[in-house]
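Dear Dr. H.,

I hope your travels went smoothly. While you were away I took the liberty of generating a structure for the chain from your last submission, since the lab meeting agenda had it listed for discussion. I wanted you to have the full record in hand beforehand rather than looking at slides cold. The sequence, exactly as received, is reproduced here:
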Amino acid sequence: MNLAGALPLSAALAALLLSLFANAAQAGGLPTVELEIRDGAFDPAIIQVTAGQRFKINLHNRGNGPVEFESLPLRVEKVLGPGVSSFVVIHPLRPGRYSFFDEFHLAMPEGVIEVR
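The corresponding predicted structure, in token form, is as follows:
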């Protein structure tokens, strides 16, 4: 086995650990918004995020029936049964307003993601 040019074992181990911690920090650093949906009503109804930054929305169905978080401009949809939680990850956005709604409760007011 030729070890010429290879990193010493301690340096290779240190590089591996740094890589693992960097990935864990990146996953844990994703900005997250909590959004409750109760029979078509969103709480909060307006979500404010920073432009150019990927973020996560944790969705919680607190109502008695199914809901669907849907945004046509973002091309995102997620169906949740009663009492179910899930999430969507939104890609970096340009400044502006992006609407979302509950397709099971179309008569309810839409929510908005405000990107600044």
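Two observations you may find useful: Helices lie at 9-28. The radius of gyration is 20 Å.

With kind regards,
E. W.
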